[in-house]
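INFO batch 0412 | record 1 of 1 | parsing
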Amino acid sequence: MSTEPPETTENTEPGTPGAATEDAGAEAADAGGGEGVEAADAAEDAGAEATSEDGDGDTAAQLSAAEAELAAQRVERERIERRKAEKQGPVESGTKLSGKAADLLAAVRAVESGAKPVATVFSEPEPPRRPAPGPVRPPHPVAAEAPAGPAPETVESVQRVLADGGAPQTLAPQVAAALGEGAADQLRADPWQLLRVAGVRTEQADGFARALLGAECGPDDERRGRAVTVWLLEQAAAAGHTALEMPTLTAALAQRGVPDAEAAVQHTLAEGEALAFQDALAEPGASAPRGDDEAEEDEERPVRVLVGLERYALAEESLADGLARLINSAPKQDGSAEEWERAANAAGSAADLIRAAAAHGLVLHTGGPASQAEPAALLHAAHALGLRAWAATHSPVGRDRFSTLLDGPGAGTVAGLLSGAEGPGRDADGAFDLDLLVLLDAPQLDVETAALLTESLPDGARLVLAGDPAVLWSAGPGRVFADLLAARVCPQIASRLPDPGPLGELVSGIGVGELNQVEAPGKEVVIVPVRDAGEAVHRTVQLVADSVPRAIGIPAEETQVITPGHGGAAGTRALNAALKERLNPGPGRFGGFDPGDRVAYSPAPGRTVPGQVVKADGEGLHLSCAGEAVVVPKERVEQSVRHGWALTAHQAAGARWPAVVVVLPGDAAQTLNRPWVYTAFGRADRHLSVVHGVEQALPRAVAEVPAKPRTTRLALLLGPLLPSTG
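INFO prediction complete | emitting tokens
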């Protein structure tokens, strides 16, 4: 590792709401959000990535890939609603409940019967009984028109209400979209519904409510308690949690000035705006249950009370059911044991993976970038045995890189697979028309996407989840890959293929908490110390435009800048402005963009597609993204397109570039953690420059700051669905 004279990490990790609720949108604000190093900027950017894709720019009658994906998601959510309606009563845990837990259960059953819970009891429903795992799958998405925006008269009426409350009238389209028909009346009757708009904070909603309600407005207003509860759960979901423990939620409510936090949660549950769960936990070191009903009745097991938004809670249950179906089902017999063994013997380091996939419906595969050769070998073996096999990656850049390891077609993106724009399509039952799905970049899977994929697999299919467990987690709620690794419910194959060269050595050390000095004779790793953010921006531009092309031979268009967040003096905004001025100056004739600009296009929440501006006309902004033409309508440009010379690590997850410049300004010192550093440094293929202004904060983050825990239920939900091993 060389250090050059000054020439040549994301914001604070949010934690659970209550401690840092303002930052809770951090991990979803960017395309690949993980453990919150992008938190400081998340609230204002919450809408920037949460836009619908307008992918191919063809006629209005042709369904775009994004519209198909959204249609698939709507179908899945309808399926979840049907599944919810079919559920029976609550699961009886077999444990003895008393005191608060018993009161919670009684209150929940009151809610389920249609009555409101007793006012003095904070309701806590147990998870509903799930039907046995079965092949319930969403039908193939059909062509549908893109959702129409709110009617002009609805927007106008909302504008009047916003004006009366002193709120920006520019929020009217978002309010109308969030509240639907009658939005103005709803907002006037309950001003705190303004919190349903991304980026609105509680103090802003309080001020709006005071202006509309006058003396009627108070912190103990039931409407306020419900709205703040839902808002906190949304913030928690953006930070990666699928639910919050009840003490965490009530503490966050108290911090937001809600005088009776338990009553606020109770009212939220009674109105059906959230779900609550009571999960029995095994005590550390406890022996296995004796199987004696009387003994079990005498023992009081600890429980945790969780509250979450319905869409994420039910998606996590749907995912658990789908995974249990794969684990419990025998894989399709499409080759003899001898044929599979011959394929394994011929596959070198991939032998263990091939043997595991031959016998199991779900397999986990872990390793760094070099390990992708093993899933590629599995696909080759599967094709040779006559299986319909396909691989999916998180990003188009990742797809194109993995395709180079294959002899023919067989790789797409997760979004393309779900929408039908890529992959094998679906059979008559709506399931993927395949026998084996290898899903790379598995740590980027959130619970909703994972549920869609899993429930779309046919009976007897095999699912291989592959990825590097040390990288940042998903943008959306959940930690699917990490939960499955911890649960140990299926075979886990760890690759022994090391990532080569000085970069591989450096990143491997970071993964185990060590920031090592590595020998880099070819300047594979260069450290560029800086004193302040202004110097960091200057040196970054110099590196991209001059030093790396001259010294390393990698042009500016193949060099990616990665920085901790969007805001700040050395965030993506500042860096992109400086890089545009140097590399592609122009007036920004179309929403700040000019032909030739590098961009980061966000067609849907948690996804970033690198691209380049081709032109702009009456149809919108024309982009070239991974070789595909994309037209972004004018009204979507501001929310879905950013300049892309500089990205955050979450946006860059799942992709690699020949050269990467990682910018660590001084104000990022307290926000770095090991997964962020590992992810950012690991995006470089041939050369890594580190613009270093955090001094000892970098080795400290690598050695001492692991990923922030997320509250999820997947591992616990899987337990009752799998055969007992005892």
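INFO post-check: The longest strand covers residues 609-617.
INFO record closed
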